[in-house]
Design a protein that fits this description.
mainly beta, Immunoglobulin-like, Neuraminidase, 3 domains, 5-stranded mixed beta sheet, elongated, disordered C terminus
Length: about 450
């Protein structure tokens, strides 16, 4: 305090003396500036201010084995430089390091933790900010080869494609069912080889799938009643149950063109719905069963189309030069998500069911978004896979494009489809992360929508 008073007094005396001796205007300006600086410095000495946070830090979702970097900003009104230090509330869940203004959080295992960052100035004054860290828990369900899991409608079981030798046969491409916790594994099919994802009937009593011979089969959930529904020499794939379980849409080339067909659940009454000269793929029923959306190549473009369930009212929804694939209805039937772009650069888009309001919900040129987008049961989020140069991972994003989070860091490949549990708390997927090949896993996503815990002071 005394030093600051002396500095100001000397500055005033020097300024007054200079005026009396008629110093040059330049000297007066320099002395005036020095006086202002000294006054500011002395004020800072008398009223030291702690560092101040520029803005809150959002909670972070970090996959186990992955890392997320966050830039943290503090200002110091006194002009002092600040140094940052960090700590985590639980190092078994996530670790944290800091370099300059960048804080890096690494996921260790499933759970939650709080990261606290402290900014300290040379005078010892400090400020802190805390943010939550969520590491999604991942559980391996199978101890055998497993691909393309599908949840039963009641969420108690998971069907999947397995390859396990049993009693002298190869077990190649069999349909298996297990409980949601991985117990009670049962092989349903033995005489045929399945190659595509199983799909549960809406009442959970039957499972439809495609065989290596490109036939569509159905089997009861207990393994009985195996039946060939298509039974012809042509290519029949991609079966999709109608919401009421009475019909199955599928893709076939039986009329020389690749078309969307529908048949009754017992295989009778096969009808060509799309009936075009293009290639029509990937049918998906609207939640009320009144419409079917699909991918079609008519001319030079591949677009998303929709038609009534009887094949009438065919409409091109996207009508653009991009490669539009794999449409998926929102649970309320009001929107359709799909992959749009070119083979090695694509995003997930959402449009209204009439084709209006196209919006990118992803925008990351480093990734190739390469799977069917899957809506959460409540319609608020979309799960999808993406691939960089090394790995394929699962991501989740809010339906408006905000809050994208990476759920996995497998150092491998997430293969085929992924599936939300009916309660929206987990996503089942298959990956070759383990050295023993592909297995079925579930990742916890129950943390979405929970209130974020932040502490700033």
């Amino acid at each position: 305090m005394r030093d600051s008073i002396r500095l100001r007094t000397r500055a005033r005396l020097a300024y007054t003396a200079c005026r009396r001796t008629r110093c040059s205007r330049g000297s007066l300006r320099e002395l005036s500036a020095v006086a202002v600086l000294i006054t500011a410095l002395s004020s800072a000495c008398e009223n030291p201010l702690a560092p101040e946070l520029c803005g809150a830090v959002a909670d972070q979702v970090v996959p186990a084995g992955g890392a997320v970097s966050v830039r943290v900003c503090f200002n110091d009104e006194n002009g002092d430089g600040v140094s940052l230090a960090s700590r985590t509330s639980d190092g078994t869940v996530a670790t944290v390091t800091v370099r300059g203004r960048v804080v890096t959080v690494t996921g260790v295992r499933g759970g939650t933790a709080t990261v606290t960052v402290t900014a300290r100035d040379p005078g010892g004054l400090s400020a802190t900010v805390s943010f939550g860290v969520i590491v999604p828990g991942i559980v391996r369900l199978t101890d055998r080869h497993g691909l393309m899991p599908a949840w039963s409608p009641d969420g108690t079981r998971i069907a999947f494609l397995g390859r396990v030798p049993e009693t002298g046969d190869t077990g190649d491409g069999s349909i298996f069912v297990m409980n949601a916790d991985g117990s009670g594994v049962k092989r349903l099919t033995k005489s045929i080889s399945a190659v595509a994802p199983p799909a549960w009937s809406p009442d959970g009593t039957r499972i439809v799938f495609t065989t290596r011979d490109f036939e569509i089969y159905v089997v009861n959930a207990d393994g009985s009643g195996e039946a060939n529904l298509t039974n012809n020499a042509d290519w029949d794939v991609y079966p999709a149950w109608s919401p009421d379980g009475t019909r199955i849409a599928f893709v076939s080339d039986r009329d020389d063109d690749i078309e969307i067909y529908v048949m009754n659940a017992d295989g009778s009454g096969t009808t060509n719905l799309s009936n075009s000269h293009g290639r029509d793929d990937w049918p998906a029923w609207s939640p009320d069963g009144s419409r079917i959306t699909f991918t079609s190549r008519r001319g030079d473009d591949i677009d998303i189309y929709v038609m009534n369930a009887d094949g009438s009212g065919v409409t091109n929804l996207t009508n653009n030069p991009a490669l539009d694939l794999w449409p998926a209805w929102s649970p309320d039937g009001g929107r359709i998500a799909f992959r749009s772009g070119i083979p090695f650069s694509a995003d997930i888009q959402v449009i209204n069911a009439d084709g209006s309001g196209a919006t990118n919900v992803t925008n990351n040129p480093e990734y190739v978004y390469g799977s069917v987008p899957r809506w959460s049961p409540d319609g608020t989020r979309i799960a999808f896979t993406s691939a960089d140069r090394n790995n394929t991972e699962i991501h989740v994003v809010n339906a408006d494009g905000s809050g994208e989070a990476t759920l996995t860091s497998t150092a491998g490949t997430v293969f085929g489809d992924h599936a939300w549990s009916p309660d929206g708390r987990t996503i089942a997927f298959s990956s070759n992360h383990s050295s023993s090949g592909f297995h079925v896993y579930v990742v916890d996503v129950s943390f979405f929508g929970k209130a974020a815990k932040r502490a700033t002071r």
